[in-house]
Write a structure and sequence with these properties.
- 4 copies of one chain form a homotetramer.
- In chain A, helix 4 runs parallel beside helix 10 and helix 9 crosses helix 10.
- In chain A, strand 6 and strand 7 form a beta hairpin.
- Chain A folds into 2 domains: about 190 residues, Gyrase A, domain 2, CATH 3.30.1360.170; about 35 residues, no CATH class.
- A 5-stranded antiparallel beta sheet of chain A has the order 2-3-4-8-5. Chain A has a two-stranded antiparallel ribbon with strand order 6-7.
- Chain A is about 45% helix and about 15% strand.
- Chain A has 13 helices and 9 strands.
- With about 300 residues, chain A is an alpha+beta fold.
- Chain A is flat and about 80 Å long.
- Strand 1 of chain C pairs antiparallel with strand 1 of chain D.
Chain lengths: ~300, ~300, ~300, ~300
């Protein structure tokens, strides 16, 4: 369970107070607001606030005085048109804010997306909680033999147990030593009156990269979709992909027409090079292009055939 | 009057529909929402949407589960602390969206702030309305003799009349010729069946820089304050400053504690160099520093004395 | 000719002084450095400085101590891989700086790309030169009947002459009136001692949108390619496309391996939606998909067929 | 020593090949180019490339055809003017690229500056080297009693030894276990043919936050100065400040006039609020303002007095 009773109570308090607004609202997203959607063993994603809806995209694209919407079907068509032609600015007119709890090694991948606003808890200022990520047995994959940055077969049985025991033992010990360095007990009080605690900004260096951190993360819809297209992709590391998958559910609740276009054009779509297009045209014309005739490298050919479902 | 009856009706319709939300709301800003705050002769600023309030800044700074607020006085103190130490990220957690109507030469200054999202009406796609900015007589200033990018004395009487007549005549003629080039009448219908209209994307080049354009403009609170500190400054050109001044009122309604800190630290504050500080310390100690002893240039000395009210 | 003799002399002086550097250099780009590549009737693009080359992309991707390059063929393969998989950060490690002279209405499209650094001449501070863009007869297109933001047939004969005369007369008059407002003669000296000149920041509003402006514009290679993919595209307005086309030549001289991959994957490539892919797979399998069976709108179907060369 | 012989040889090779260029060069920076400036126990900062010099700032500010420089004293005055009035865009016209080796907990602070381009070595793809940061005894500070994110007195003697032993032992063990998880020996070869190695993207989670990482980091001069003003500040954590201090030396070699203005206006300067200014004016006038009369909080008063050297 990622939440303490206090935290759950704070969230309940937020969900108890409805207010009036003249702004556009999205009931399906209001239903999710503030709730912690669990991810991994101790993580979560929570929607803290949002601005805009599908209609706000149309309104901005038309620079209109009112809602800017015409018929639902026309709005849907316009959103598809904007997505297809990569007219990104109307999507930038919607904004969403998340509270995310995630392991530090995941946070380090995540932060590479620079077009978001971030407030992270400071381990210079605060003592981090004793929470670290241990993979579920189903995620304990060996290094891939073919893909230098991918996973291969599952590690199982004794070997798996050894891996998990080691990860757990190291994280436990390093956290205990972190407390020793800080000279605090589990409640954060001085453990030993006879010595000083090391500065927090130094002690944190002893923690392992699977320790959980938290941040507020705010992003516009265009950049969120860019993030999701990379991080919900099958090539993304599992531990960040599961966050992206929860956020896809949020996207669907928030802006259903945009979500549909995003799934069709981005998540389910594909890009081809000029050389790829020649191969495709030849195949359609009944030709028999080969890797040699195509001018593609072997790797490019394999990737192209995979996209065409011809593996 | 900047709004047509249709436009006013669209705005009224937006203001008529209150909805329920669990998000933080700001009644003082809701009272302004969608309304056109008039600027210059045909321009306006309208708030279209907002995300967050003073409490959201505190909440993000504390990465909290609930509102994150403690006592009002503590929140105010924290906001002042964040402003004083230029901790900008918590302010980035609030967002606001405006609809602005403004002369093109003002838009060209405005767009230099790159940290905002923008959707402008397209004069490739649409025909621009016949609206152009003519300065009020009180703004008709001569070129400054001392400041190459400033205004000097007022131009008055006959000379003023000549200037205004000329600006008006040129804008009128160029707009009429724009319509001729497009081959449209005042309702946008073909004016002369016997000839083609020039492509809109070409015809627009005949318009003058005081023609009004419009855009949706969305920005986070930190970058909005940066924009306002530059554009509400007395050195900013009058025609953009009046927009910034309306937006300051919006800021005050939206985030009053932040507004207070912003006025104290940014708008009313000042920065000093190391050399300036030496002069100040000497003055406090009862010394009589001079431009020569200070190591400052004449211009720097004058600027320093002005900041200290010793002109 | 876009350059005065003084300007040409300044450029020659820059090209006369070779220096020693340990940085990577690109002889093909050095050959272009500082030269004004003419665009439109008075515009140009000049490369002012650059950082990095194809090797710098490889070096950054490998975070290497030395050049990071292996065999040329491996480097080319890595660059193609990075381009294909949209790994954009290594391309961000190269930077280029241009001096561009361009009509204001083109500058307004251009500035929408916010990921560049810009210094524009200030018409608050300086008096703009008397230079305005008049389209060549071959560019005088009528408004398209099918595409609201496109061009249709050429306007020719008498009608063309009328259009050009009008554009020229309005620009001439508005510039003359700009000088009158400023109270300056052609050399920038006071024209009439008996009256004040209007402030420059006001007088500029009387200029037409085809007046030329200038700026320094600096951008990284990744964002430059994004700019070029949009602005060298056939759907871009001709008047900005010609700038992009000159910059493509610069790209080819600067980073030939990247240029090749860019042409193959971006300029010559295409993206397809999930529904598009189903149609393609069906066509390859010898099926006869129709707009109805595909679930695509008529417009989407037409766009898909065009991409497949089946119009 | 932070460099292996191979790495040192690669750097020597880079420094051995001078080339001709027409671009501006900075001999004092060329003298530093590629060299590893050591920081902490295993880290370094290396300049990989640069674009522009002091003259390029002036040239961009004047949007000039040639160098844009007049007399050296005028250029220096212009640079001071631009710095004083926070005209940031001309400084954005210079760019620099670093290779940095730094502990992960430092990298996590550093990356919060989002206006740079980054390529970091990937621990999904590669095995990180066995290098971790252990503070020098002189840096082993206790938690500050007054500043929640600062350091207090030095920890010495037995206590210090215990802290260092523990940090070293945990980093050693966790790295050894990382190798066990990966099933590699010190040369990166399979250690035990009888079992699979855990995927690199998972094994890395066992490393401690003082493990060293590396990246290429590229930034424009304006944003570099913003970074340095925060990270070379006495309030910054020592472990990042030492990097900033090396980079200040680079700044001085690269753009000496800008460096001088930066030291005077930013590093040595100070900002005051409107209320602060009232206190200062009162002090200059010989008054005796107090914390009560000033309207400042106790903390604000203390900070003000510190800036005025009246502690």
């Amino acid at each position: 369970m990622p939440l303490s009773t206090d935290q759950a109570a704070e969230i309940d308090a937020l969900r108890a107070e409805a207010r009036e607004t003249l702004r556009p609202t999205v009931p399906a997203l209001e239903a999710l607001l503030y709730k912690a959607l669990p991810v991994l063993d101790h993580g979560f994603v929570r929607v803290i606030d949002y601005m805009g809806d599908d209609g706000a995209i149309v309104q901005a694209a038309r620079v209109s005085y009112g809602r800017g919407t015409k018929k639902v079907s026309e709005d849907r068509g316009l959103i598809r048109y904007l997505m297809r032609h990569r007219h990104s600015t109307p999507f930038e007119m919607c904004e969403i804010k998340f509270h995310v709890k995630l392991p530090i090694f995941v946070a380090r991948q995540w932060i590479r997306h620079r077009t978001a606003n971030v407030n992270e808890i400071s381990a210079r200022y605060s003592i981090l909680d004793k929470e670290y990520y241990i993979p579920a047995p189903a995620q304990l994959a060996a290094q891939s033999a073919v893909n230098r940055q991918g996973r291969g077969d599952l590690i199982e049985g004794e070997q798996a147990r050894a891996v998990l025991d080691l990860l757990r033992a190291d994280a436990e010990r390093n956290y205990a030593d972190y407390e020793y360095l800080l000279n605090v007990d589990a409640e954060g009080n001085p453990a030993d009156a006879g010595r000083d605690g090391l500065a927090r900004e130094l002690a944190r260096m002893n923690l392992t990269l699977n320790t959980y951190t938290q941040w507020y993360w705010k992003i516009d819809l265009h950049n969120l979709m860019h993030f999701l297209s990379l991080r919900a992709d099958p090539h993304a590391q599992y531990e960040i992909r599961v966050y992206a998958e929860e956020m896809l559910k949020v996207l669907e609740a928030w802006v259903p027409a945009t979500f549909e276009a995003f799934c069709d054009y981005r998540m389910g779509g594909a890009s081809f090079s000029a050389k790829d297009l020649e191969v495709i045209k030849s195949l359609i014309a009944g030709g028999s292009p080969t890797v040699e005739s195509s001018g593609l490298s072997k790797r490019e050919w394999t990737e192209l055939m995979a996209k065409l479902g011809r593996e």
